[in-house]
Amino acid sequence: MLAHLTIVPGVGLALGDMLFFAICFIILMWAIKLVAWKPVTKMMQDRADKIANDIDSAEQSRAEAAKLAEQRQEALANSHKEATSIVSDAKKQGQEQRASLVAAAQSDVQVLKSNAQKDIEQERQDALANAKNDVADLSIEIASKIIQKELKADDQKALIDSYIEGLGKHNES
């Protein structure tokens, strides 16, 4: 049945040869389908699945990176807010301490001023008392020189008191 495959010039292919080639082609296609088509389609499907998974993975990674960038921006903004808060708190505490120190200094100045005024008043009173004693001594001496005689103690005391009252009224006016 197998015919000779010779093509004679001018004569076409024989019908048997064409039928043989067609059957061989169909058998070859069937064998390729059984042996190669399934593994090739499986390989192509696996490759398509891998590419789809890689695309999905890349999309997830991009979304995670965007999320991390947003979180980093939020953390940076929060740290700026916190730093600003710390600086403003420090300024506020500094102003409070300054106000406290100024108030304490003013209080100390008032105390010192009050003590100085008391000391001045005490010194004035002491000076007046010393002046009264000196005036009394001088008055007695002057009076004894003027009168040329010794006064009695009661007369001396009365003379001194009147003289001191005159000096006190003179100093007040």
UniProtKB/TrEMBL annotation:
Belongs to the ATPase B chain family. Its main location: membrane. Pfam families: ATP-synt_B. The keyword Transit peptide does not apply. F(1)F(0) ATP synthase produces ATP from ADP in the presence of a proton or sodium gradient. F-type ATPases consist of two structural domains, F(1) containing the extramembraneous catalytic core and F(0) containing the membrane proton channel, linked together by a central stalk and a peripheral stalk. During catalysis, ATP synthesis in the catalytic domain of F(1) is coupled via a rotary mechanism of the central stalk subunits to proton translocation. It is found in: Cell membrane; Endomembrane system. InterPro entries: ATP_synth_B-like_membr_sf, ATP_synth_b/b'su_bac/chlpt, ATP_synth_F0_bsu_bac, ATP_synthase_B_chain. This is ATP synthase subunit b. Keywords: ATP synthesis, Cell membrane, CF(0), Hydrogen ion transport, Ion transport, Membrane, Transmembrane, Transmembrane helix, Transport. F-type ATPases have 2 components, F(1) - the catalytic core - and F(0) - the membrane proton channel. F(1) has five subunits: alpha(3), beta(3), gamma(1), delta(1), epsilon(1). F(0) has three main subunits: a(1), b(2) and c(10-14). The alpha and beta chains form an alternating ring which encloses part of the gamma chain. F(1) is attached to F(0) by a central stalk formed by the gamma and epsilon chains, while a peripheral stalk is formed by the delta and b chains. GO terms for molecular function: proton-transporting ATP synthase activity, rotational mechanism; proton-transporting ATPase activity, rotational mechanism. It is a single-pass membrane protein. The chain crosses the membrane at residues 18-37. One of its GO terms (cellular component) is plasma membrane.
